[in-house]
Design brief:
The complex is a heterodimer.
Chain A (H helix, E strand, L loop, with lengths): L5 E10 L2 E11 L4 E5 L6 H9 L6 E6 L2 E2 L5 H5 L3 E3 L12 H10 L16 H13 L15 H13 L5 E5 L7 H12 L6 E5 L3 H7 L2 E6 L2 E6 L1 H6 L1 H8 L2
Parallel strand pairs in A: 3-8, 3-9, 6-7, 7-8
Antiparallel strand pairs in A: 1-2, 1-4, 4-5, 9-10
Chain B lengths: L1 H24 L3 H24 L10 H16 L5 H23 L5 H20 L1 H4 L5 E2 L14 H24 L1 H11 L1 H6 L4 H27 L1 E2 L6 H14 L6 H14 L8 H15 L4 H31 L1
Antiparallel strand pairs in B: 1-2
The chains are: A alpha/beta, B mainly alpha.
Chain lengths: 247, 333
């Protein structure tokens, strides 16, 4: 039997006395599109940070493709085929777009430890970075510095940097946040082009896009999972209404 | 990017040509010795710049590598009977090992914590050098004629010794510039700007910073070996906090994160320290004034500041031409 892309068991995270994630267990099979829903402060991004290894779990276990990664660092998890984007855009603003993607590609190469080989001379690396920018429709801006691009272009670059790592498990933290209607359509289209063998877990507040995208939806509140199921099940569940409307 | 690197290469070639011609232009041994001191200080400042400018790790313990390499070079040559090449290689190797240990300890923290650990480690070494008089000579230091004679060349000659140190400066500039554009150098700069993102991209930020710390320590050791050859004497002052602070001042004054900024900073500090101090008793006050002026008018440092000025000057004629355009149009209509 194939191991799930992600398996979380009894996960807890406390910040001092505050439980940000409480006893979360979930299983995401390979290729699934999973949507994480919940109001602000529900613990969605904290759960992402725990899965990505940004900070350690207080209790519980995380497995990626069957491998226990609970004690592993963020970079070790990335080398197992995981990539992520951030809710708050985290790029290298002084560098060009193509340079940002090159840095992303370099993260998985041994070249990152080479103290003498000039990366500007690795033309294949730059060509690959340009082809990834073309995927997200940013090839024409390859030589522009990130600081001189629009918010929507930065969001697409975030996704390009994640895709550059050819992930098997992709965590998208609000990829549509702050985008115009046109930009949303572009990103939506882009997400649909990601091959089905890539497992995607997404946090998103745009219900129309998110619900159309997801195979399975997990609703969180106060750090816990309160509802889980397909679109019809989640929409029909009274707990979902309770979470969003408070009654 | 290509044009910029071509410009840098041309500048580097001009600088090297000027340095090579210097002993012919300046015939006084005094000024040749000053130039030698600048070269040694520049190597030390460039090595610190790897940490401060490209790594965002502000260290106040960089004199450790200068001092330890200098002590080892002199001790091994004069007290242990090791040959010149052997003592130099052992001194550089042992100091690089020390950088491995110090990096391991200091990188347990970042920011202010990192600065305080490097400061503490440096002061421990200074204390050892000061108190362990039977080994280090204490306050009196260690000395003796130790300049080698490679291929029969007499390095006691100031001009020959200047060229000897210049070889190391050219090597340092070349290898550090390669490092900055290398995979490791780019990883280090990424870790400086976005450490969290870099981890998520698969980079072991700690390892990258540690390797860079060791690389910087290695060049600090080279500067220490040259320092020992130049002065043929070393005292606890070489390990003192003021030496680390002075090196940091060179980096900040010249421009952090630039290749030639530390060289310019080193020239500024060494000239003020050696030349101006001959005329002004309170030269340290003057150094302070110069530093305040740099902070006020070129907060990014001399080299990036001059670059900014040049770009402003370049843009001025274009913008003034643009500004005069509507007036010209008005005249024609």
């Amino acid at each position: 039997m194939t191991a799930p892309a992600l398996e979380v068991t009894g996960l807890h995270r406390f910040f001092g006395g505050l439980p940000a994630v409480r006893d979360v267990s979930m299983r995401v099979p390979v290729g699934e599109r999973r949507l994480l829903l919940g109001p602000n402060g529900a613990g969605k991004t904290t759960l992402f940070n725990l899965i990505a290894g940004d900070f350690p779990a207080s209790r519980g276990e995380i497995r990626i493709f069957g491998e226990n990664v609970t004690g592993k660092t963020a970079d070790q998890r990335t080398h197992l085929g995981m990539a992520r984007t951030y809710q708050i855009i985290t790029l290298f603003p002084k560098n060009t777009l193509v340079h940002n993607v090159v840095i992303s590609l370099l993260g998985l190469l041994k070249l990152r430890f080479n103290p003498l080989s000039d990366i500007r001379k690795h033309t294949a690396l730059w060509d690959e970075a340009r082809s990834i920018l073309a995927l997200v429709g940013l090839e024409h801006l390859a030589e522009r510095t990130v600081a001189d691009t629009s918010y929507g272009e930065k969001r697409r670059l975030e996704i390009a940097m994640a895709l550059a790592q050819k992930p098997k498990l992709l965590l998208l933290d609000e990829p549509l946040a702050g985008l115009s209607a046109d930009e949303r359509r572009d990103v939506e289209r882009l997400l649909q082009t990601i091959p089905r063998d890539v497992t995607i877990i997404m946090i998103e507040h745009d219900m129309d896009v998110a619900l159309a995208f997801a195979d399975v939806i997990t609703v969180m509140q106060h750090g816990q999972i309160v509802v889980e199921g397909n679109r019809a099940e989640v929409v029909a569940d009274p707990k979902t209404r309770e979470v969003y409307l408070g009654h | 990017m290509i044009r910029a690197s071509r410009q840098q290469a041309v500048l580097a070639l001009v600088a090297i040509a000027a340095l090579l011609a210097m002993p012919w232009l300046v015939t006084s041994d005094y000024y040749i010795n000053i130039a030698t001191q600048i070269v040694i200080a520049a190597i030390l400042a460039m090595s610190l710049n790897v940490l401060v400018g490209f790594g965002g790790m502000i260290s106040l313990g960089h004199a450790s590598y200068l001092g330890v390499a200098a002590y080892l070079t002199i001790y091994l040559s004069t007290h242990a009977g090791v040959g010149a090449l052997g003592s130099a290689l052992i001194a550089i190797g042992a100091t690089t090992l020390l950088a491995m240990l110090f990096g391991y300890l200091a990188l347990r923290a970042s920011g202010l914590g990192f600065l305080m650990i490097t400061l503490a480690l440096g002061q421990i070494l200074w204390g050892i050098a000061y108190r362990w008089a039977s080994l280090t000579g204490g306050d009196n230091g260690l000395g003796g004629p130790i300049r080698p004679r490679p291929f029969g060349i007499d390095l006691m000659n100031p001009t020959a010794f200047f060229y000897f140190t210049l070889i190391f400066l050219v090597l340092a500039v070349w290898l550090i510039s390669r490092f900055v554009q290398s995979g490791l150098g780019q990883s280090l700069q990424g870790a400086r700007d976005q450490p969290r993102r870099m981890r998520a991209l698969g980079y072991n930020v700690w390892l990258i910073q540690w390797l860079s710390f060791v690389f910087a320590g290695f060049w600090g050791a080279i500067a220490g070996m040259l320092y020992a050859y130049y002065h043929q004497f070393v005292s606890p002052q070489a390990l003192h906090l003021t030496t680390s602070a002075e090196t940091l001042l060179m980096v900040v004054a010249g421009g952090t994160g630039t290749l030639f900024g530390p060289v310019v900073g080193a020239a500024l500090v060494v000239i003020l320290k050696n030349v101006v101090s001959a005329y002004i008793t309170r030269w340290l006050m003057l150094l302070g004034v110069v530093f305040v002026a740099i902070v006020l008018f070129m907060p990014e440092g001399i080299v990036p500041g001059l670059r900014r000025l040049r770009e402003t000057m370049k843009m001025r004629p274009a913008s003034s031409a643009e500004a005069s355009l509507p007036a010209a149009e008005e005249r024609t209509t």
